[in-house]
Specification:
The protein is built from 8 helices and 7 strands. By secondary structure, it is of the alpha/beta class. It folds into 2 domains: 49 residues, Helicase, Ruva Protein, domain 3 (Orthogonal Bundle), CATH 1.10.8; 131 residues, Dna Topoisomerase Vi A Subunit, Chain: A, domain 2. The chain is elongated, with a radius of gyration of 21 Å.
Length: 209
């Protein structure tokens, strides 16, 4: 965006516009709002962003966001540790947790297989998932990936990969298709997503579609 009256303003707008879904005009509105806010408000925002970048880490078990080595979900003894829900990213953990219907654990892949985007199995936390499943304890895997071609491809890859462990006690399920085909989990309403988790079906059933 040109013709801004200040180089500092221009640089700040440019940084805000790098955020997902934020165009130059939206970025300008945000920056002008901050200019009109009190210095304390602006300082709190700046401090929060610095703390976010410095103090937030990823759980060494499931890759969820955490302030320690292990996240609050993995360290909660009240969770159903025999059920593991595999999701694409942290936004899906948040979406499922907001339903209040799932009490198991998670594994965040960090993406889905998408050759067109240059993302292959080696780019995801699949090896870490296999290590988690190599020891007894988890007896159900919920493949809760988006109902897209890439999501289905990733689910099938995981099904084949995990099946090579030859664990007869391990069963696969997938969320019910209350989530429309082509939809991302983060955009599903909480009622629909909650019912999809509760009414999950054996993954093998989805292979016959």
């Amino acid at each position: 965006m040109s013709n801004l009256p200040s180089k500092i303003l221009e640089e700040t707008v440019a940084e805000f516009s790098r955020l997902p879904g934020i165009g130059k005009r939206s970025a300008l509105r945000m920056v002008l709002h901050l200019l009109q806010a009190s210095e304390d408000d602006a300082s709190r925002l700046g401090s929060a962003l610095i703390r976010l970048r410095k103090e937030i880490r990823y759980c060494k078990i499931c890759n969820n966001i955490s302030t320690g080595e292990v996240c609050m979900i993995c360290s909660n003894p009240g969770r159903e540790s025999h059920i593991l829900c595999v999701v694409e990213d942290i936004r899906d953990v948040i979406a499922i947790e907001n339903t209040g219907q799932f009490k198991g654990l998670y594994h965040v892949l960090g993406g889905i297989i998408s050759p067109i985007d240059g993302i292959g199995p080696d780019d995801l936390a699949i090896d870490a998932l296999i290590r988690r499943l190599s020891t007894p304890g988890i007896t159900e895997i919920i493949l809760a990936l988006s109902a897209t071609m890439e999501g289905d491809t990733t689910s099938f890859f995981l099904f084949r990969k995990i099946s090579q462990l030859h664990r007869e006690d391990l069963r696969f399920s997938t969320i019910a298709r209350g989530v429309s085909v082509g939809d991302d989990l983060e955009y599903a309403d909480e009622v629909t997503l909650g019912r999809s988790i509760l009414n999950r079906v054996p993954y093998e059933n989805s292979l016959s579609r």
